[in-house]
Design brief:
single chain; alpha/beta; 20 strands; globular
């Protein structure tokens, strides 16, 4: 897909969704564009807060959440969306004008009289109040301009400056960067110039060079340098799976902190150091040794807590001159990065207490959901023969890649089979499901934090019973996606809705309905929603009624918390919302089934999945062939890694005179093979 094709498709998506949902186009643009920024690690969350006063030259479009959650950095967002077919270039003067309006918002937000003139229930007031109340603890202000135009080549960035006494940086996410984020499986390239920007080159030792897969180096990096690098790029330095892991476990490691504060000279001895990857390095000979000058696409795959703790110590003024960290740096060619880097990340962290669910992008759960989405047709809502599928994007860029590999005619067919409106990502899935688990406060914290919590729970459930995630579960998940998307449209169409906080209203509305249905010993008939690919009238009416009551709860936070967006992220907000009285429409009963019927349906689906798992195992064992299993058996026995049961089953499946293995035998054989592979068996299933 060319950048021009992406620009037009992105524009059409924004306009179509805005029209379908009855929303402003800039609200949809904000939502879609910020999803890319969060995926890249440039933001943890994105809260819409639109305010524009042309006469005073003030404009703001949103924020990146509470600055105290991001080491004292205030992220402010400004939009430049052009609905025209030809979007053209974003000039330097236009860029400067947007930043100037954002700067004026900050200045006015610090003015008590102006701030208190705003409507207290408006998102703009909440943001201004947060800026004012946090100002003494804010270290840095990041102004981010998001545009669907391409920044002119003649514009060479904008230098850092001071804004009301604070350090301010200026960042532009233009069409080119959005295009890369949407279509590339690679993260945005980070170029680190140690020699020019961070005090000088670092001595390194070669550990492995001239390998086809990668080359490795060992280094000792000053803590102050690592802290400064992290201060500039933040979580973007962390490989995506590590970011998810740290989102789920945000507490600073006590041992790391105590060493830094009490015995900094022993940090090198006590700490495991960091493991990192890069696409390229600039290494020069220096006095008979090697010196690392530049790193292209630096990613920390192990040692995120170490890095974060050192950065935290720097912000608190801790002296770091005695602190040094060992670093293992693997240089992986960009053509193999998507294959090799996640493996380095997984194995580097396997020594820690990190379960497979923490590396969730490659978890079997996601692979299974992806397989369901490529295989299961959704019923046609109009009764025609034209059916479609929902496209689960397990890895970034899958949808664009699948579409780009086709001819023009094949693309038309692809668009019919997989409509873009039916594309959903891992973070979307987490959002669709977590509201039904009555966690709207987690959903309100943003895509990444919600996904971290979701992944931990699903990973635990997968260990207990992977067969619970079956075709019936998938169809129910899609039904929940339909409810979520429909609720967005219903809320936007309500006469009381004046804009703002829609994401929070939607999450809390669905969670409140879920709570009521459970208390009634009933269950929503998701099978009916799946078959219709739409909501019934009873559920639509219920959503409208509940949403209005939820809006009242959100718009009346406690006296000490005037920021509604931050109020929605609190457990206390959900406790209050869960206990509100609602006049439940009688028609809702038409959308429910008994708990007994629902349990029986889930049980049958689980049994069916167990059968499918067994059949799939049989096919995989047979396809591998008897010689493959004979080799695995010999290797496992030599290493002493197999139990008597494993030996018996592998002996059966490798014996030419024996009949094909049963389903149970096949499952045991695959489990034994996985155990051998974990211990270093080099062969994989064909």
């Amino acid at each position: 897909m060319t950048i021009e094709e992406f620009a037009e498709m992105f524009r059409q998506d924004v306009l179509a969704e805005a029209d379908a949902n009855g929303q402003f186009v800039e609200d949809i643009f904000f939502e879609k564009a910020c999803a890319h920024l969060m995926e890249e690690g440039d933001l943890d969350t994105a809260d819409r807060a639109s305010y524009w006063h042309p006469t005073r030259g003030i404009r703001i479009d949103g924020s990146g959440g509470d600055p105290l959650d991001s080491s004292g950095t205030l992220h402010l967002l400004g939009l430049d969306f052009k609905a025209e077919h030809t979007t053209g270039r974003l000039t330097g003067s236009e860029m400067g004008a947007v930043f100037k309006r954002m700067e004026r918002f900050v200045k006015f937000a610090l003015d008590d009289k102006w701030r208190n003139s705003l409507e207290e229930t408006s998102p703009a007031f909440g943001l201004a109040d947060m800026v004012a109340s946090r100002w003494k603890r804010i270290r840095k202000v990041r102004l981010i301009l998001i545009s669907n135009r391409q920044l002119s080549d003649r514009v060479d960035g904008r230098p850092a400056a001071k804004l009301e006494g604070k350090q301010a940086t200026y960042n532009v996410w233009d069409l080119k960067r959005l295009y890369h984020a949407d279509t590339s499986s690679e993260p945005e390239v980070l170029d680190i110039d140690l020699e020019s920007d961070f005090g000088g080159a670092i001595d390194v030792l070669p550990a492995q060079r001239n390998s086809d897969a990668h080359e490795s180096y060992l280094a000792v990096i000053p803590a102050s340098v690592l802290a400064e690098i992290y201060d500039r790029w933040g979580p973007r330095l962390l490989e995506q799976n590590v970011r998810v892991f740290l989102q789920a476990r945000s507490k600073v490691n006590r041992g790391i902190r105590n060493t830094l504060y009490n015995v900094p000279s022993m940090f090198f001895a006590y700490n495991n150091g960091i493991t990192a990857t890069a696409h390229e390095v600039d290494i020069r000979n220096k006095h008979g040794g090697l010196s690392l000058r530049k790193i292209t696409n630096f990613q920390i795959v192990n040692g995120g807590q170490t890095t974060g703790s050192i950065h935290s110590a720097m912000l608190k003024g801790k002296e770091l001159s005695q602190v040094f960290i060992q670093m293992k740096l693997s240089v992986v060619d960009s053509s193999r990065a998507t294959e090799v880097v996640p493996k380095i990340s997984e194995y580097a962290n396997s020594q820690n207490r990190i379960a497979a669910s923490d590396f969730f992008a490659n978890h079997p759960f996601h692979v299974r959901v992806e397989n369901f989405s490529r295989r299961i047709f959704a019923p046609s809502p109009d009764g025609s023969f034209q059916q479609s599928k929902w496209f689960y994007e397990r890895a970034r860029g899958q949808y664009a890649d699948a579409r780009a590999q086709r001819t023009v005619v094949q693309r038309r067919r692809f668009d019919i089979e997989y409509p873009r409106r039916q594309r959903f990502t891992k973070t979307d899935l987490a959002k669709f499901l977590n509201v039904w688990n009555e966690r709207p406060h987690e959903v309100s914290k943003g895509a990444q934090k919600n996904f971290a919590a979701f992944s931990r729970r699903v990973g635990e459930k997968w260990k207990k019973s992977s067969d619970s995630f079956n075709e019936d579960w998938y169809c129910e998940a899609i039904a929940k996606a339909i409810v979520f998307k429909s609720t967005e449209r219903i809320v936007s169409a309500q006469p009381w809705y004046k804009g703002g906080f829609r994401a929070n209203i939607v999450a809390y509305t669905i969670a409140r309905i879920s709570s009521h249905v459970k208390d009634s010993d009933s269950a929503v008939n998701f099978d009916s929603i799946w078959r219709r690919q739409a909501l019934g009238e009873g559920l639509r009416e219920t959503i409208a009624v509940v949403a209005e009551r939820i809006n009242s709860v959100l718009c009346h936070p406690p006296e000490e918390m005037r920021n509604i967006t931050e109020w929605a992220k609190k457990q206390a907000c959900w406790e209050q919302a869960r206990n509100i009285n609602v006049e439940w429409p009688h028609e809702l009963n038409d959308e429910l089934v008994t708990v007994g019927a629902e349990k029986e349906k889930k049980h049958q689906a689980k049994v069916q999945q167990q059968m499918l798992t067994g059949i799939e195992a049989q096919l995989r064992v047979h396809k591998a062939g008897k010689p493959f299993w004979a080799d695995a058996l010999a290797w496992g026995r030599k290493k002493g890694l197999l139990s008597p049961k494993d030996i018996g089953v592998l002996g059966w499946v490798s014996n030419e005179s024996k009949p094909p293995s049963s389903e149970k035998q096949s499952v045991v054989a695959l489990t034994a093979l996985a155990k051998l592979c974990d211990e270093g068996y080099p062969k994989k299933l064909p």
